[in-house]
User: Fold this.
Amino acid sequence: MTTMPSFDQIAPLLEDQAIELPSWAFGNSGTRFRVFGQPGVPRNPEEKISDAAKVHEFTGLAPTVALHIPWDKVDDYDRLARFAKEHGVGLGTINSNTFQDDDYKFGSLAHHDSQIRAKALDHMYECIEIMNATGSRDLKIWLADGTNYPGQGDLRRRQDWLADSLSRIYDRLADDQRLILEYKFFEPAFYHTDVPDWGTAYAHTVALGEKAKVCLDTGHHAPGTNIEFIVAQLLRLGKLGSFDFNSRFYADDDLIVGAADPFQLFRILHEVITNGGYGKDSDVAFMLDQCHNLEPKIPGQIRSVLNVSEMTARALLVDHEALVEAQSAGDVLGANQVLMDAFYTDVRSDLADWRAGRGLPADPMAAYAKSGYAEQIIAERIGGTQAGWGA
Ligand code: PSV
Ligand code: MN
Assistant:
């Protein structure tokens, strides 16, 4: 056994944890086979924010909500920001959307037609205007751009069009705003994607400048990819802007973070902590990008932030001195044991006490279930059109 720090020693560091929730996690979602509705699902951005605020109320871990435009379009964003504040949360990242319009069939920022690129740019400018109203720092750009068949598009020229588009968006950012470029290796395009990997996202964000960073969505890698290596590398290069946390078994499954592979989440958070990505001095944003197709959504989000909190606590328990010593001595098994000792430490009851000590429920899942909020929204939210991924 190594000499791990005690829970009390790491507890102050847990205070720094903030996990941003995606507004779309509260809407209906599913697969291309079926979207199952659930009673009580929000009909508008205000109701999504109210639900997100419940997650924060019961966990103290989720102080902001990310919006997706146009899914969360409203007439008055100042009002929406005030509404969020009244409910105890803030508005966070603005997610752009250039993947749900017929014009974007062959791409958006990397499209061969300058008129389509101009339309996509106008959308990004609109998102920046929204950020100005909501006080959001980050514009997240994920592109569905790509092709399905070899020869369909000019791979090289599309990169040039993309670079040009991105630089125009970058020029519109205020000094305290950031452009966050998210990569994904496939889907909806199946042959090539214009921002498929961290290297491509890195190349574009370096060319743009300081205010451009990379978003690492944990579901956007081929099976077996060593994601924690990418985390370490992007932090080393000063380019890790944010995480979209979720978990995957097969593709971009968008399941609850830490559900499919808790050890992977631990390894990722270990690299985050070791490389300065965690704590007050870090500007890395920790977001969820998930959908709850079968399970109820608010408890699904509560479970998710608790999973991140648990794995963060375990990663903070790593005995760094012992690790460095073992690594420097070429002690393969000793070094591995240092990590495994922390990973196998069950922190759940310590975290429950820690929450209770801060006036939060020791068991947020149970407290939410008892609160009556689920029954209340089921009774109140009658009529209207339920929100959903893509609507
Ligand atoms: C794309 O799969 C993605 O991860 C992007 O972040 C989108 O904005 C999000 O999913 C929408 O669910
Ligand atoms: Mn994502």
